[in-house]
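Q: Mind making up any chain with structure tokens?
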Amino acid sequence: ISGYSLVVQARDSGTPPLSSSVTVNVDISDVNDNSPVFTPANYTAVIQENKPVGTSILQLVVTDKDSFHNGPPFTFTILTGNEEEEFTLDPHGVLRSAVIFRHMVSTEYVLCVQAKDSGKPQQVSHTYIQVRVIEESIHKPTAIPLEIFIVTMEDDFPGGVIGKIHATDQDVYDVLTYTLKSEQKTLFKVNSHDGKIIALGGLDNGKYVLNVSVSDGRFQVPIDVVVHVEQLLQEMLQNTVTIRFENVSPEDFVGLHMHGFRRTLRNAVLSQKQDSLHIISIQPVTGSSQLDMLFAVQMHSGGFYKPAYLIQKLTNARRHLENVIRISAILEKNCSGLDCQEQHCEQSLSIDSHSLMTYSTARISFVCPRFYRNVRCMC
């Protein structure tokens, strides 16, 4: 407890008795009676041979229960095990290599490290660090090609995480880093540690081929990453049809079914090969295991097929479509629960282009805006 606040009252013996109060604050000053604590108590680390001088091996974590002026900053010292000065320890507790290690020369080092706090008198603690020297990488990283589809309203893409590269390495201790060619960084970024791909705002319609690579420190491997950006037209939203699927998650649909279903759907609804199928959005149905897919079909001439025409086509081809995935319903208007006839049901569709949903798998990622369907009865 760092302090107490007391209220003290003095009362005299007169009739009637009179009194007054005063507040007494008592501050408890800290004595440096706690030693620094290493977490964990002892460490094990690994470094590959032939790594350059200055390679980070380990970050020490130290805490102190005393107040701040009796705790950090800590002073670190290697007491034993560094007689040949193979290691350095910086003021932040980062252990680095001071030589290029060779597996054939030595496979293990044991260091005794001391941490000293800033109190008076100073308190000290010790930890042991076992450093193993292993052979350098012999396996190249492997990465899965990634294809990303982004759907956005005209010139209104806010940016964000659009997918993640999945890479592995058979060398157990390899740390993978991801890089993107510098001239592409005006539109995209790649997180160097976890491979997440970030798109910046304002992407134009079209196809982007990203020059991404993954490295284990010795081998560098290119990764095929292709980004397709499709900008929605306002006219599309007035001619949409929704297919509702049963018992499927967005990620499973994107990773397992989307390519196959798109191909089957094209065969079912396109009147001419030059017509274009546009998947506008997919999103879960609230409170269920169902999934809605919103789409429109553009004619070669530029206009869009009416929903009633598409629904007729879908109804005739439903059996073929369900060979790919089970369909719960085909929706144009959703007036269930409203006491009005179908022809008196008016539906409006709105797109929130700043509320993006990203469904990412190892091979494919789909980024689309959230949509809202509103229905009302017309007299």
About this structure: The two ends are 72 Å apart (CA to CA).
